[in-house]
Amino acid sequence: xxxxxxxxxxxxxxxxxxxxxxxxxxxxxxxxxxxxxxxxxxxxxxxxxxxxxxxxxxxxxxxxxxxxxxxxxxxxxxxxxxxxxxxxxxxxxxxxxxxxxxxxxxxxxxxxxxxxxxxxxxxxxxxxxxxxxxxxxxxxxxxxxxxxxxxxxxxxxxxxxxxxxxxxxxxxxxxxxxxxxxxxxxxxxxxxxxxxxxxxxxxxxxxxxxxxxxxxxxxxxxxxxxxxxxxxxxxxxxxxxxxxxxxxxxxxxxxxxxxxxxxxxxxxxxxxxxxxxxxxxxxxxxxxxxxxxxxxxxxxxxxxxxxxxxxxxxxxxxxxxxxxxxxxxxxxxxxxxxxxxxxxxxxxxxxxxxxxxxxxxxxxxxxxxxxxxxxxxxxxxxxxxxxxxxxxxxxxxxxxxxxxxxxxxxxxxxxxxxxxxxxxxxxxxxxxxxxxxxxxxxxxxxxxxxxxxxxxxxxxxxxxxxxxxxxxxxxxxxxxxxxxxxxxxxxxxxxxxxxxxxxxxxxxxxxxxxxxxxxxxxxxxxxxxxxxxxxxxx
Length: 538
Known about the structure:
Elements: E1 2-3, E2 7-9, E3 13-16, E4 19-22, H1 30-51, H2 58-72, H3 76-85, E5 90-95, E6 98-107, E7 117-122, H4 125-141, E8 148-152, E9 156-157, E10 162-163, H5 168-175, E11 186-190, E12 193-201, E13 209-215, H6 216-267, H7 282-309, E14 316-317, E15 321-328, E16 336-342, E17 347-355, H8 360-374, H9 383-396, E18 406-414, E19 419-425, E20 431-434, E21 439-442, E22 461-464, E23 470-474, H10 476-479, H11 490-500, H12 506-521, E24 530-537
Antiparallel strand pairs: 1-7, 2-3, 3-4, 5-6, 6-7, 8-13, 9-10, 11-12, 12-13, 14-15, 15-24, 16-17, 17-18, 18-19, 19-22, 20-21, 20-23, 23-24
Helix pairs in contact: 1-2, 6-7, 7-8, 8-9
């Protein structure tokens, strides 16, 4: 409380005639309390002078403004404006590092046109919120839904101020709490009864987390009631359908039976199945649409089989090296492609690509790439030339309808020496894994994608594999894989995974990586095709 005379009071003590008299020891140093009171006196006196239309000296104003802005960390005019806004109402205001609900009252003892006292209450937010919850929790639990409520701060929970760390049941609940309700339902037991619950940090009671527990028994009862209703409705529906079937069996039941058989064929992926010709009505039109769709599905299935046969089916292994690769498409027709084959007695070709998009268009680009490589038998040992020819093929086939491009990488590898010649066309940089040094290295070689620009140029890079080292080719599907928390594996995470999963057997190496990939993916669906090729020198 402050007045225009030099009289000031707060919860610590009173300042009058230049002397500070504490009420009792409140735990705050007397010097700090006195400093706060003096500062508050100057601000309050200035505020009363403004309200009472009394002049304030420039020196006094400047000193008050400087001290207030340093203490409250905001412009002086904003401090005065906030006091005006909080007059006769409770308003949340920030004071320096603190934020408190504030109430300002202006008191006039003798003359209504002259304000004698400035009265300001700063409520402790935590205590205010806690007291509110303690008063409301009983009335909250008296609800027709049977909900139970709890509240907690970062240390204790419930009115009984139980320590979270000392209560295993609530510690598990608290560990699952976020600022927003969980996407999936959460369950617990209270006094032998099962509950589903939700918890989140309150928006208006920011110091506390609020929890609501709903008994599963009530949900089961509601489900049972719904089952009874649905069963009754189903029985009535069946009776009506039987009645209609007796009247329209020839034009209604038989077409439905045929369509049901078609649905079963789809579920069994028997795309060769066709419906017989039905009447010239809505069912007949549905049958014709079904047959046309099944023909498309059959073509798509065959295309998937053809695409799978474009990829190598076996690993290559001898005393010099291990080579294994696999591609898992996200859809029936994926956009990833890889291949490896023997070029001569000691040399092998390894390549991997990723067509932008999926479906038939991507599958055709893959087939073109494989055919293009097969026609490069005269330059298999020069990856840059091979990529140049593939680029010309893909670029020349582009049109307004087909604008797909393809990333590609190519390695010509000598199994005797471990040396290789490598070229890249916008693909992910392969990673060299050294298990002995426990380190990885990206083989970086920048170049444009195939089919992107007319005058693209590609270059070669010489590399060498030491005994025990592995070279891993991959597409970006594994890098961009999201776990249930929405976090990607990322390039650094993938490198660490390669070190942890290393195995001199390329097939086992792949299996370990794939198992970790599935564990990271969790219940999520894959966002892209997954392709890995692993070359390990013995």
